[in-house]
Protein backbone atom coordinates (compact mmCIF):
# COMPACT_ATOMS: atom_id res chain seq x y z
CA UNK A 1 0.00 0.00 0.00
CA UNK A 2 3.00 2.31 0.09
CA UNK A 3 2.92 3.94 -3.31
CA UNK A 4 0.49 5.69 -5.62
CA UNK A 5 -1.98 6.37 -2.86
CA UNK A 6 -3.39 9.42 -4.43
CA UNK A 7 -4.28 8.99 -8.02
CA UNK A 8 -6.23 10.96 -10.50
CA UNK A 9 -8.80 9.28 -12.58
CA UNK A 10 -10.78 11.06 -15.18
CA UNK A 11 -14.00 9.29 -15.75
CA UNK A 12 -16.15 10.54 -18.52
CA UNK A 13 -19.77 9.75 -18.29
CA UNK A 14 -22.81 11.05 -19.98
CA UNK A 15 -25.42 12.61 -17.79
CA UNK A 16 -28.70 11.26 -19.05
CA UNK A 17 -32.01 12.98 -18.94
CA UNK A 18 -34.22 12.86 -15.92
CA UNK A 19 -36.36 9.77 -15.49
CA UNK A 20 -40.10 9.85 -14.99
CA UNK A 21 -39.95 8.56 -11.42
CA UNK A 22 -38.31 11.74 -10.18
CA UNK A 23 -39.80 15.13 -9.63
CA UNK A 24 -38.04 18.48 -9.79
CA UNK A 25 -38.65 20.54 -6.67
CA UNK A 26 -37.10 23.79 -5.53
CA UNK A 27 -38.60 23.79 -2.08
CA UNK A 28 -39.63 20.61 -0.34
CA UNK A 29 -42.47 21.36 2.05
CA UNK A 30 -43.82 19.66 5.10
CA UNK A 31 -45.98 16.59 4.27
CA UNK A 32 -43.82 15.83 1.20
CA UNK A 33 -42.88 12.18 1.01
CA UNK A 34 -40.93 9.62 -0.98
CA UNK A 35 -41.14 5.85 -1.31
CA UNK A 36 -38.50 3.47 -2.74
CA UNK A 37 -40.73 2.25 -5.55
CA UNK A 38 -42.90 5.36 -6.21
CA UNK A 39 -41.60 8.92 -6.31
CA UNK A 40 -38.23 7.88 -4.97
CA UNK A 41 -36.25 11.14 -4.97
CA UNK A 42 -36.32 14.93 -4.97
CA UNK A 43 -34.21 16.46 -7.74
CA UNK A 44 -32.17 19.64 -7.75
CA UNK A 45 -33.52 22.34 -10.12
CA UNK A 46 -31.26 21.30 -13.02
CA UNK A 47 -31.93 17.60 -12.38
CA UNK A 48 -28.25 16.90 -11.74
CA UNK A 49 -28.50 15.76 -8.11
CA UNK A 50 -31.17 13.81 -6.28
CA UNK A 51 -31.97 13.20 -2.64
CA UNK A 52 -33.88 10.04 -1.90
CA UNK A 53 -33.83 6.27 -2.01
CA UNK A 54 -31.18 4.36 -3.90
CA UNK A 55 -31.08 0.56 -4.21
CA UNK A 56 -28.68 -1.43 -2.09
CA UNK A 57 -29.36 -4.95 -3.44
CA UNK A 58 -31.88 -7.64 -2.34
CA UNK A 59 -34.75 -5.15 -2.70
CA UNK A 60 -33.34 -3.00 0.06
CA UNK A 61 -32.62 0.71 -0.04
CA UNK A 62 -30.68 3.50 1.60
CA UNK A 63 -31.37 7.24 1.69
CA UNK A 64 -28.74 9.50 0.21
CA UNK A 65 -27.67 12.01 -2.42
CA UNK A 66 -26.59 10.86 -5.87
CA UNK A 67 -25.89 12.13 -9.36
CA UNK A 68 -29.32 11.57 -10.85
CA UNK A 69 -28.32 11.19 -14.47
CA UNK A 70 -26.38 7.97 -14.06
CA UNK A 71 -28.86 5.12 -14.49
CA UNK A 72 -27.60 1.78 -13.11
CA UNK A 73 -24.84 2.28 -10.61
CA UNK A 74 -25.99 5.66 -9.38
CA UNK A 75 -23.07 7.70 -8.17
CA UNK A 76 -23.77 8.15 -4.50
CA UNK A 77 -22.10 11.17 -2.89
CA UNK A 78 -23.70 11.04 0.57
CA UNK A 79 -25.62 8.49 2.65
CA UNK A 80 -27.84 9.08 5.68
CA UNK A 81 -27.13 6.88 8.73
CA UNK A 82 -24.87 4.74 6.57
CA UNK A 83 -24.31 2.11 9.26
CA UNK A 84 -27.99 1.46 9.91
CA UNK A 85 -29.41 -1.63 8.16
CA UNK A 86 -30.81 -0.82 4.72
CA UNK A 87 -34.61 -0.55 4.57
CA UNK A 88 -37.16 -2.61 2.64
CA UNK A 89 -39.55 -1.17 0.08
CA UNK A 90 -42.18 -0.90 2.84
CA UNK A 91 -40.98 2.44 4.00
CA UNK A 92 -41.93 6.08 3.50
CA UNK A 93 -39.62 9.04 3.91
CA UNK A 94 -41.51 12.10 5.06
CA UNK A 95 -40.95 15.71 6.06
CA UNK A 96 -43.61 15.60 8.74
CA UNK A 97 -46.11 18.37 9.59
CA UNK A 98 -44.24 18.85 12.90
CA UNK A 99 -40.94 19.35 11.09
CA UNK A 100 -39.05 16.07 11.31
CA UNK A 101 -37.39 14.19 8.45
CA UNK A 102 -38.20 10.56 9.15
CA UNK A 103 -38.50 7.08 7.74
CA UNK A 104 -41.81 5.44 8.55
CA UNK A 105 -41.63 1.64 8.58
CA UNK A 106 -45.10 0.39 7.68
CA UNK A 107 -44.51 -3.22 8.61
CA UNK A 108 -43.19 -2.35 12.08
CA UNK A 109 -45.26 0.77 12.68
CA UNK A 110 -42.13 2.60 13.82
CA UNK A 111 -40.10 5.61 12.70
CA UNK A 112 -36.42 6.57 12.55
CA UNK A 113 -34.91 10.00 12.01
CA UNK A 114 -33.08 10.57 8.72
CA UNK A 115 -31.56 13.73 10.20
CA UNK A 116 -31.95 14.30 13.92
CA UNK A 117 -32.32 17.95 14.92
CA UNK A 118 -33.52 19.87 17.94
CA UNK A 119 -35.30 22.38 15.77
CA UNK A 120 -38.35 21.95 13.61
CA UNK A 121 -37.67 21.71 9.87
CA UNK A 122 -39.90 24.00 7.86
CA UNK A 123 -38.63 23.12 4.38
CA UNK A 124 -35.77 21.45 2.54
CA UNK A 125 -33.95 21.89 -0.78
CA UNK A 126 -31.82 19.72 -2.98
CA UNK A 127 -29.41 22.28 -4.45
CA UNK A 128 -27.59 22.03 -7.79
CA UNK A 129 -24.29 22.01 -5.91
CA UNK A 130 -25.22 18.60 -4.48
CA UNK A 131 -25.86 20.09 -1.03
CA UNK A 132 -29.11 19.01 0.66
CA UNK A 133 -30.20 21.73 3.07
CA UNK A 134 -32.85 22.05 5.78
CA UNK A 135 -34.43 25.36 6.79
CA UNK A 136 -36.36 26.66 9.78
CA UNK A 137 -39.51 28.77 9.46
CA UNK A 138 -37.39 31.93 9.00
CA UNK A 139 -35.63 30.36 5.98
CA UNK A 140 -32.44 30.04 8.02
CA UNK A 141 -30.33 27.04 7.13
CA UNK A 142 -30.27 24.71 10.14
CA UNK A 143 -28.51 21.71 8.60
CA UNK A 144 -26.63 20.90 5.39
CA UNK A 145 -25.25 17.63 4.05
CA UNK A 146 -22.03 19.46 3.04
CA UNK A 147 -21.13 19.68 6.73
CA UNK A 148 -21.63 15.94 7.24
CA UNK A 149 -19.62 14.23 4.51
CA UNK A 150 -19.46 10.43 4.23
CA UNK A 151 -16.91 9.29 1.62
CA UNK A 152 -16.89 12.16 -0.90
CA UNK A 153 -16.70 15.91 -1.33
CA UNK A 154 -18.08 18.03 -4.15
CA UNK A 155 -16.97 21.46 -5.45
CA UNK A 156 -17.68 24.12 -2.83
CA UNK A 157 -17.63 21.58 -0.02
CA UNK A 158 -14.69 21.63 2.37
CA UNK A 159 -13.23 19.06 4.71
CA UNK A 160 -12.55 21.18 7.75
CA UNK A 161 -10.32 20.74 10.74
CA UNK A 162 -10.85 17.33 12.42
CA UNK A 163 -13.36 16.18 9.79
CA UNK A 164 -12.96 12.73 8.22
CA UNK A 165 -14.11 10.86 5.14
CA UNK A 166 -14.61 7.09 5.45
CA UNK A 167 -14.51 4.73 2.50
CA UNK A 168 -17.51 2.50 1.76
CA UNK A 169 -17.54 -1.27 2.34
CA UNK A 170 -18.05 -2.11 -1.32
CA UNK A 171 -19.20 -0.55 -4.61
CA UNK A 172 -22.81 -1.39 -3.72
CA UNK A 173 -22.73 -1.20 0.09
CA UNK A 174 -22.14 2.35 1.30
CA UNK A 175 -21.77 1.56 4.98
CA UNK A 176 -18.42 2.42 6.62
CA UNK A 177 -15.51 0.52 5.12
CA UNK A 178 -11.85 0.08 5.93
CA UNK A 179 -10.10 3.41 5.31
CA UNK A 180 -10.33 7.03 6.33
CA UNK A 181 -8.97 10.40 5.29
CA UNK A 182 -8.67 12.98 8.07
CA UNK A 183 -8.00 16.72 7.98
CA UNK A 184 -5.97 16.82 11.18
CA UNK A 185 -5.83 19.87 13.43
CA UNK A 186 -2.04 19.92 12.90
CA UNK A 187 -2.71 20.82 9.20
CA UNK A 188 -1.70 17.41 7.88
CA UNK A 189 -4.16 15.54 5.64
CA UNK A 190 -3.66 11.89 6.59
CA UNK A 191 -4.94 8.43 5.60
CA UNK A 192 -5.26 5.60 8.11
CA UNK A 193 -6.93 2.20 8.22
CA UNK A 194 -10.14 2.63 10.25
CA UNK A 195 -9.20 0.00 12.82
CA UNK A 196 -5.75 1.47 13.57
CA UNK A 197 -5.01 4.32 15.95
CA UNK A 198 -4.43 7.80 14.47
CA UNK A 199 -0.68 7.64 14.98
CA UNK A 200 1.98 8.45 12.37
CA UNK A 201 3.21 4.85 12.16
CA UNK A 202 -0.25 3.71 11.01
CA UNK A 203 -0.62 6.40 8.37
CA UNK A 204 -0.25 5.09 4.83
CA UNK A 205 -0.32 8.53 3.18
CA UNK A 206 0.00 12.11 4.39
CA UNK A 207 0.17 15.49 2.71
CA UNK A 208 3.31 16.55 4.56
CA UNK A 209 1.86 19.90 5.61
CA UNK A 210 1.96 19.42 9.38
CA UNK A 211 2.41 22.48 11.54
CA UNK A 212 2.78 22.46 15.29
CA UNK A 213 -0.47 21.06 16.67
CA UNK A 214 -2.62 23.65 18.40
CA UNK A 215 -0.75 26.69 17.13
CA UNK A 216 -3.15 29.60 17.32
CA UNK A 217 -4.48 30.97 14.09
CA UNK A 218 -3.80 27.97 11.87
CA UNK A 219 -6.95 26.46 10.42
CA UNK A 220 -6.29 24.30 7.38
CA UNK A 221 -9.09 22.87 5.23
CA UNK A 222 -9.24 20.60 2.18
CA UNK A 223 -10.97 22.43 -0.66
CA UNK A 224 -12.29 21.47 -4.08
CA UNK A 225 -13.18 24.10 -6.67
CA UNK A 226 -15.51 23.78 -9.65
CA UNK A 227 -12.55 23.34 -12.02
CA UNK A 228 -11.21 20.33 -10.11
CA UNK A 229 -8.55 22.31 -8.25
CA UNK A 230 -7.99 20.33 -5.02
CA UNK A 231 -5.87 22.02 -2.35
CA UNK A 232 -5.14 22.67 1.29
CA UNK A 233 -5.98 26.19 2.39
CA UNK A 234 -4.84 27.99 5.54
CA UNK A 235 -7.36 30.35 7.16
CA UNK A 236 -9.28 30.71 3.90
CA UNK A 237 -6.39 32.69 2.38
CA UNK A 238 -3.07 31.06 1.60
CA UNK A 239 -2.67 27.78 -0.24
CA UNK A 240 -0.44 25.41 1.72
CA UNK A 241 -0.38 22.73 -0.96
CA UNK A 242 -1.98 21.99 -4.31
CA UNK A 243 -3.07 18.36 -4.82
CA UNK A 244 -4.28 19.12 -8.35
CA UNK A 245 -3.78 22.25 -10.42
CA UNK A 246 -7.33 22.33 -11.79
CA UNK A 247 -8.48 21.51 -15.30
CA UNK A 248 -9.62 23.50 -18.28
CA UNK A 249 -12.74 21.52 -19.31
CA UNK A 250 -15.55 23.83 -18.35
CA UNK A 251 -18.49 21.42 -18.73
CA UNK A 252 -17.43 18.91 -16.10
CA UNK A 253 -18.51 18.01 -12.60
CA UNK A 254 -15.69 17.00 -10.26
CA UNK A 255 -16.00 14.72 -7.26
CA UNK A 256 -13.35 13.59 -4.79
CA UNK A 257 -13.92 10.30 -3.00
CA UNK A 258 -12.00 7.91 -0.80
CA UNK A 259 -12.67 4.63 -2.59
CA UNK A 260 -13.12 1.16 -1.10
CA UNK A 261 -9.42 0.36 -1.71
CA UNK A 262 -8.37 3.34 0.44
CA UNK A 263 -7.14 5.50 -2.43
CA UNK A 264 -8.71 8.90 -2.79
CA UNK A 265 -9.44 9.87 -6.35
CA UNK A 266 -10.74 12.84 -8.22
CA UNK A 267 -13.47 11.98 -10.74
CA UNK A 268 -14.73 14.07 -13.60
CA UNK A 269 -18.15 13.71 -15.20
CA UNK A 270 -18.95 15.36 -18.48
CA UNK A 271 -22.06 17.54 -18.27
CA UNK A 272 -22.67 17.58 -22.02
CA UNK A 273 -26.13 16.29 -23.05
C1 LIG B 1 -44.13 16.97 -10.03
O1 LIG B 1 -44.68 17.74 -9.00
C2 LIG B 1 -45.65 18.64 -9.43
C3 LIG B 1 -46.06 19.52 -8.26
O2 LIG B 1 -45.97 18.84 -7.04
C4 LIG B 1 -46.84 17.86 -10.01
O3 LIG B 1 -47.83 18.74 -10.47
C5 LIG B 1 -46.34 16.99 -11.16
O4 LIG B 1 -47.38 16.18 -11.62
C6 LIG B 1 -45.19 16.11 -10.71
N1 LIG B 1 -44.65 15.41 -11.85
C7 LIG B 1 -44.36 14.11 -11.83
C8 LIG B 1 -43.75 13.56 -13.09
O5 LIG B 1 -44.57 13.40 -10.86
C1 LIG C 1 -45.58 11.39 -7.62
O1 LIG C 1 -45.95 12.66 -7.10
C2 LIG C 1 -46.95 13.32 -7.88
C3 LIG C 1 -47.23 14.65 -7.23
O2 LIG C 1 -46.08 15.25 -6.82
C4 LIG C 1 -48.20 12.48 -7.96
O3 LIG C 1 -49.11 13.12 -8.80
C5 LIG C 1 -47.88 11.11 -8.48
O4 LIG C 1 -49.03 10.29 -8.42
C6 LIG C 1 -46.78 10.46 -7.66
N1 LIG C 1 -46.42 9.19 -8.25
C7 LIG C 1 -46.36 8.07 -7.53
C8 LIG C 1 -45.97 6.83 -8.28
O5 LIG C 1 -46.57 8.04 -6.33
C1 LIG D 1 -29.46 -11.35 -0.32
O1 LIG D 1 -30.07 -12.12 0.72
C2 LIG D 1 -29.64 -13.46 0.76
C3 LIG D 1 -30.47 -14.17 1.83
O2 LIG D 1 -30.58 -13.41 2.99
C4 LIG D 1 -28.16 -13.50 1.06
O3 LIG D 1 -27.71 -14.85 1.04
C5 LIG D 1 -27.40 -12.72 -0.03
O4 LIG D 1 -26.03 -12.66 0.30
C6 LIG D 1 -27.95 -11.31 -0.12
N1 LIG D 1 -27.33 -10.63 -1.24
C7 LIG D 1 -26.85 -9.40 -1.16
C8 LIG D 1 -26.27 -8.82 -2.39
O5 LIG D 1 -26.91 -8.72 -0.11
C1 LIG E 1 -21.00 1.71 -13.79
O1 LIG E 1 -21.15 0.43 -14.37
C2 LIG E 1 -20.54 0.33 -15.64
C3 LIG E 1 -20.87 -1.03 -16.23
O2 LIG E 1 -21.21 -1.95 -15.23
C4 LIG E 1 -19.03 0.55 -15.49
O3 LIG E 1 -18.41 0.47 -16.75
C5 LIG E 1 -18.80 1.94 -14.89
O4 LIG E 1 -17.42 2.13 -14.64
C6 LIG E 1 -19.54 2.08 -13.59
N1 LIG E 1 -19.44 3.47 -13.12
C7 LIG E 1 -19.07 3.80 -11.89
C8 LIG E 1 -19.04 5.25 -11.58
O5 LIG E 1 -18.79 2.97 -11.04
C1 LIG F 1 -44.72 -5.06 3.61
O1 LIG F 1 -45.85 -4.91 4.43
C2 LIG F 1 -46.87 -5.88 4.16
C3 LIG F 1 -48.08 -5.52 5.02
O2 LIG F 1 -47.70 -5.08 6.29
C4 LIG F 1 -46.33 -7.26 4.45
O3 LIG F 1 -47.32 -8.23 4.14
C5 LIG F 1 -45.08 -7.51 3.61
O4 LIG F 1 -44.51 -8.75 3.96
C6 LIG F 1 -44.07 -6.41 3.83
N1 LIG F 1 -42.96 -6.58 2.90
C7 LIG F 1 -41.69 -6.42 3.27
C8 LIG F 1 -40.70 -6.61 2.18
O5 LIG F 1 -41.36 -6.13 4.40
C1 LIG G 1 -30.17 19.86 21.56
O1 LIG G 1 -30.63 20.52 22.71
C2 LIG G 1 -29.95 20.14 23.90
C3 LIG G 1 -30.62 20.82 25.08
O2 LIG G 1 -31.07 22.10 24.74
C4 LIG G 1 -28.47 20.51 23.78
O3 LIG G 1 -27.78 20.12 24.93
C5 LIG G 1 -27.88 19.81 22.57
O4 LIG G 1 -26.54 20.22 22.37
C6 LIG G 1 -28.69 20.13 21.33
N1 LIG G 1 -28.20 19.33 20.22
C7 LIG G 1 -27.96 19.83 19.02
C8 LIG G 1 -27.51 18.85 17.97
O5 LIG G 1 -28.11 20.99 18.75
C1 LIG H 1 -1.64 30.41 8.35
O1 LIG H 1 -2.21 31.71 8.33
C2 LIG H 1 -1.84 32.54 9.43
C3 LIG H 1 -2.50 33.89 9.28
O2 LIG H 1 -3.82 33.79 8.82
C4 LIG H 1 -0.35 32.74 9.47
O3 LIG H 1 -0.01 33.45 10.65
C5 LIG H 1 0.33 31.36 9.52
O4 LIG H 1 1.74 31.55 9.42
C6 LIG H 1 -0.13 30.52 8.35
N1 LIG H 1 0.47 29.20 8.49
C7 LIG H 1 1.01 28.55 7.46
C8 LIG H 1 1.62 27.22 7.77
O5 LIG H 1 0.99 28.98 6.34
C1 LIG I 1 -11.74 27.06 9.71
O1 LIG I 1 -12.01 27.64 8.45
C2 LIG I 1 -13.25 27.28 7.89
C3 LIG I 1 -13.39 27.94 6.53
O2 LIG I 1 -12.20 28.04 5.87
C4 LIG I 1 -14.37 27.72 8.79
O3 LIG I 1 -15.60 27.28 8.25
C5 LIG I 1 -14.18 27.13 10.18
O4 LIG I 1 -15.16 27.63 11.04
C6 LIG I 1 -12.80 27.48 10.71
N1 LIG I 1 -12.60 26.81 11.97
C7 LIG I 1 -12.09 27.42 13.04
C8 LIG I 1 -11.94 26.57 14.26
O5 LIG I 1 -11.77 28.59 12.99
C1 LIG J 1 -1.73 26.36 -6.54
O1 LIG J 1 -2.54 26.39 -7.68
C2 LIG J 1 -3.08 27.68 -7.92
C3 LIG J 1 -4.10 27.56 -9.05
O2 LIG J 1 -3.75 26.56 -9.96
C4 LIG J 1 -1.93 28.63 -8.26
O3 LIG J 1 -2.46 29.92 -8.51
C5 LIG J 1 -0.98 28.67 -7.07
O4 LIG J 1 0.15 29.44 -7.38
C6 LIG J 1 -0.53 27.29 -6.66
N1 LIG J 1 0.15 27.40 -5.38
C7 LIG J 1 1.16 26.64 -5.02
C8 LIG J 1 1.70 26.84 -3.64
O5 LIG J 1 1.66 25.81 -5.78
UniProtKB/TrEMBL annotation:
The superkingdom of the source organism is Eukaryota
Which InterPro entries does its entry note? Bulb-type_lectin_dom, Bulb-type_lectin_dom_sf, G-type_lectin_kinases/EP1-like
Work out whether the entry's keyword set contains Glycoprotein: yes
Q: Which UniProt keywords apply?
A: Glycoprotein, Signal
What SUPFAM superfamilies does its record include?
Answer: alpha-D-mannose-specific plant lectins (SSF51110)
What species was this sequence derived from? Daucus carota subsp. sativus (Carrot)
Protein name, as recorded: Bulb-type lectin domain-containing protein
Bulb-type lectin domain span? 27-147, 150-273
Q: Where in the sequence is the signal peptide annotated?
A: 1-20
Mention any Pfam family matching this sequence. Answer: B_lectin
Amino acid sequence: MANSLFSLLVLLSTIYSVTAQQNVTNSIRQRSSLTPTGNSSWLSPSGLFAFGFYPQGNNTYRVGIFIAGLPLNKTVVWTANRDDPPVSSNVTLQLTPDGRLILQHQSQDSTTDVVKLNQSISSASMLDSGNFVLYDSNQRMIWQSFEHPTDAILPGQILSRNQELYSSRSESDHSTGLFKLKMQSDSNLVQHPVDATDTPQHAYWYSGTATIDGVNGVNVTLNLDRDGHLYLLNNSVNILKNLTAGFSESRSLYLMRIDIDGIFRLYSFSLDN
